[in-house]
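Teaching soon. Got one?

===
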Amino acid sequence: MSSDGKLRNIGPKSAAWLRQTGIHNQADLEAVGALAAFIRVKRAGFKPSLNLLYALEGAILGCHWQEIPEERRQELVLAAGEEVAKLPPPRGKRVPVAGPVITLRHDEDEGTMPEPDFGFDDPAAERD
């Protein structure tokens, strides 16, 4: 933690997200852990990128987030994916269910478009 009380690697927007989930300082972050803090932010409805997860880990370890070893990043990503999958869908949003795909074929007179039927008589056709 820097001398001004800010968490390392954490910008103002991410810091606001963390505060809204009960993480106010380095001690709070260390007590919760990077993964749980990231999941709290997701659960609160925010849309953090994986960079926040790396930044949180870096803040705990006292290093820049880009210094997190690739192996550890992959561990964090896998664990985050498992935890995010357990979260309920956001309130007020329905997850669309895909319907069946139907393919229509018009084998007769391929290459020509059928006349549209709009459900009413075409006055121009009556004049012919």
Observations:
- Helices lie at 12-20, 26-32, 34-43, 50-61, 70-86, 123-127.
